[in-house]
Amino acid sequence: MPQTVTLSLTPKQAADAKFYTLQAARTLGISDRDVALVRVVKRSVDARRGRPKVNLSLEVYVDREPQPAPVHFDYPSVAGRTPVVVVGAGPAGLFAALRLIELGLRPIVVERGKEVLPRKRDVAAINRNGAVDPDSNYAFGEGGAGTFSDGKLFTRSRKRGDYNKALQTLVFHGASPEILYEAHPHIGSDRLPRIITAICRTICDAGGDVLFGHRITGLHVEHGRVRGVCCGTTVIEGAAVVLATGHSADDIYMMLHDAGIALEPKPFALGVRIEHPQALINAIQYRNSSEMEYLPAASYSLVSQEGGRGVYSFCMCPGGFMVPAMTDSAQSVVNGMSPSERNSPFANSGLVTEIRVADFEYLRPRYGDLAGLAFRREIEMAARRNGGEHQIAPAQRATDFVAGRGSSSLPAVSYIPGVVPSRLDRWMPDFVSTALRQGIATFGRRMHGFLTDEAVVVGVESRTSTPVRIPRDAATLMHPSVEGLFPTGEGAGYAGGIISAALDGERVAEAVNSYVK
Ligand SMILES: Cc1cc2nc3c(=O)[nH]c(=O)nc-3n(C[C@H](O)[C@H](O)[C@H](O)COP(=O)(O)OP(=O)(O)OC[C@H]3O[C@@H](n4cnc5c(N)ncnc54)[C@H](O)[C@@H]3O)c2cc1C
Questions:
Q1: Radius of gyration (Cα) for the chain, nearest Å?
Q2: Beta-carbon count within 10 A of 385 CB
Q3: Does residue 491 have its Cβ closer than 6 Å to ligand 1?
Q4: Nearest atom (ligand 1) to Cα of 214
């Protein structure tokens, strides 16, 4: 059995494996020569007060003790087994497919977008000339919105075992084992595509299918049960359908709505991306530590109540880039990502406020349960009209936004299509810009230096979660009025983020297994 040691070290000491091995051996009262292996099982930076410290939790193995085995999964062959259609190759769909394989069912993953490599070219085209392919972009394609995401692997899930298994699955498919012990695990947008490709290979090697370039346009129903999907005139059959199409698939919500399938409006969040120089965030958060070079790019997490409305930072990307995440060229949508090294000179974060169902009630007479979708689309299109050609995004200095005046110039930003000065409050709903303005002022008071001329707010961060829920029965996880249809993931309203979508996909696969067998 390994022994566990917890050390609180300076950043420089924590970066030195020889140093902490010696310290761990001393703490255990043994010689470092008897130590066969030291494994970091948790690492976190504590910069709350005084000089930043790094807390390390170590497992110490002494001579001749069995050492931890590398992560391994066996996926059985499911060739010839009962097929199940999984729509969407995002984290929810892919983890549903892996779990179906473990349960002896054959997943057929149907994805509207392209494989990672051609998708990379489409994403590059958005950055280069603003051309958005509605089936292949930052949201759609192999790996869904997860592929070019930041890859922070955070979840509020209390089921630690499931969470660990999800992380191990990612490690088995090529992620660094460091994600198993980091307090805030992060993969990085440069490494995710390879992992996603490996997961799709596992599915196909086990006898499943991943069909790219297949946009589903309808459900195939036989004797009152969903028995597959339609892609135009092509029918793909399965014993059940897992619907994991993400929060950007407006056409799916419309298809369900038009077919009279019950949907529910749902609160969501919307706002801007805010970007600062990373050096400024480091200086604020690490209080100009002399050991900055041993510390990771600093992040922040901010939340406040402004006039009874929540305002909070979301998906903070230290050392990252803002990216154009729209699925249609008539929209301006921004998001953020960072490479594994988190080494860009910029720090960006979503800064959003809650949008309640009552806020888009005025659109219900016209759009029914899709009112939230119409509300989101209106703002995304307003942002587009107030930006420039080729997806240049509308932006304002944070200080000008808070003061309610225009910006005559903008500092350099990481957003490749570029930014153009715009008064955001002139085209955002009043309640949104007021809450954000007050929130940024509050954060500036709490985090001295946050509200600065060097910070830019960019419109709009609107794809935080879905404004529409696809209902499902709490016990069977099936749509209450459509037998054989299993909504899952972020688009159905049951997840927010890579890991929670993956875990929800697994749960739904288990429900499908109970339904089919
Ligand atoms: C730039 C960026 C950065 C992000 N960073 C993080 C992060 O650091 N951490 C985190 O946890 N989350 C992050 N996210 C969010 C995360 O990616 C999503 O929460 C997650 O991908 C949701 O998974 P999902 O499987 O439910 O849906 P998606 O990933 O949205 O997958 C849905 C899939 O369904 C497909 N589809 C849609 N319609 C159809 C159709 N009609 N026919 C066939 N296929 C269809 C789409 O093409 C897509 O591939 C980020 C997102 C973006 C865009």
A1: 24
A2: 11
A3: yes
A4: 43
Please tell me if the CB atom of residue 97 comes closer than 6 angstroms to any atom of ligand 1.
no
- Sites in the chain below the pLDDT cut of 70: 157-161
Question: Which of 108, 140, 149, 230 is the best mutation target for the ligand 1 pocket, counting ligand atoms within 8 Å of the beta carbon and taking the most?
Answer: 149
Q: Output the pTM of the full model.
A: 0.95
Nearest alpha carbon to residue 105 among 124, 123, 80: 80
For 83-263+470-516, which CATH superfamily applies? FAD/NAD(P)-binding domain (3.50.50.60)
Alpha-carbon distance of 482 to 471, in angstroms, equals: 10
Which residue puts its alpha carbon closest to atom 47 of ligand 1?
140
Contact 419, 395 (CB under 8 A): yes
Kindly give the number of the ligand 1 atom that is closest to the alpha carbon of 336. 1
pLDDT at 159: 67
Q: Mind listing the pLDDT tens digit for each residue in 290-322?
A: 899 999 999 999 999 999 999 999 999 999 999
| End-to-end Cα distance, the chain | 41
In short, whether 342's Cβ falls inside 6 Å of ligand 1 is no
pLDDT at residue 10, rounded to an integer: 96
CA 215 to ligand 1: nearest atom? 42
**For residue 17, what pLDDT is reported?**
94
CATH architecture designation of domain 3-62? 2-Layer Sandwich (3.30)
Q: What is the DSSP letter of 262?
A: -
Q: What is the sign, positive or negative, of the torsion defined by CA atoms of 484, 489, 495, 499? A: positive
For residue 322, the Cα-to-chain-centroid distance in whole angstroms is: 14
> What are the tokens at 52?
């930043």
Domain edges within the chain: 3-62, 83-263+470-516, 265-461
CB 344 within 8 A of CB 414: yes
Ligand 1: residue of 245, 326, 472, 486 to mutate (most ligand atoms within 8 A of CB) is 245
Determine contact, residues 476/422, Cβ cutoff 8 Å.
no
